[in-house]
Amino acid sequence: MTDQLIPTRRDFPADDPIFALNAEAQARKAAGESILNATVGALLDDSGQLVVLDSVMELWRELTALEVAPYAPIAGDTAFLKALVRRHWPLLQSPGAACATPGGSGALAISLRNFLEPGQSLLTTAPFWSPYATLAAENGMHLATAPWPLAGQPLDGAAWAAALGSLMKRQGRVLLWLNDPCHNPTGRSLSPADRATLADLLREASALGPVTLLLDFAYLDYTLDPGAVAAALEDYAALGAEGRVLVGASLSLSKSMTLYGARCGALAFPWRADPVLQAALTQSCRGTWSNCAKAPQALLLRLERDGKAQERLAAEHRHWSEVLAQRAAALDEAMVAEGMEALHWTGGFFVCVPVAESTQVCAAMQREGVFSVPLPEGLRVGLCGLRVAEAPRFAQILRQALAPR
After folding, report:
1. What digits encode the pLDDT tens for the residues 65-110?
2. 285 & 323 share domain
């Protein structure tokens, strides 16, 4: 026991649970076992190698010393922030109140500090990316959920209204993290009707207290239907422009540019150019990480000026979206062949298989060399690392694990 640690910091697992599962899968594979590893959260090709986008790496190699070595401004390069926001909303002329962050996680973390008090609760979907709970806990906060729609089902407006009403009654404000479109971990997006329902509920809640909607845009570039993603962004832009709900976005270069290790992103509120909000975000940056890396910010500015690089990047995104779609289709076919429901992926790196007792099911599958991530609502399966040829094995082992004993 390290006595110097305060008591509340002594009972954590040695590693993040997802990384621990991945490490076990890799160790068993290295020992000679036949392993199917669907825990990975980064895009892999069919040989199991990390996908690194050539268009991005060529720009990275062109960076000069003065685009890499100096400090960036504390809140980030304003031109970078504008360019990053305009990747999603090309007509916007300003990033609004915004700051550079170390990836999307940094954006999420400082949203907690600025829109909730310690002891209050963040609202998100069930299921959700499990580090959401870690981020909340590290800031002395709790996490409440409302259900993500099942495939083919509408948003449960009553459940969402109850969740919003409960939080507003208890704490007088709401911060909602919404990973849409291309939801992690289900791989499905809200329908236009779902978004309209949710927007109405948020407007109603905003009459009772401050409501902040933070969109987690980790996976937008990997989608079955780019047109549907563009329409979703316009829906959220319309809500943000109204001004009743504060709408912002957690933006990241990690997946979109395969720059996981560069740790660069932003927290932006494009429809709120508020100096008080900007000052609060800048203060959070200074008091947490001070400055973000300059190199990835400089790279995005190079990309903005290079039309050919943009075309190449878009083509790479389409190619890997098609690969993910093929993997999703193969898994759906295998699931149906084993007498289970298809998962209906539309975007992102993951799907979620609804199962009860997911921890036990995962453990049974691991004994057969098949790894996924247990969630309260089911199993998270990384299409980003699952080859088409592995889909039948995954479905067969899952069916065996679910069989009554």
Report:
1. 999 999 999 999 999 999 999 999 999 999 999 999 999 999 999 9
2. no
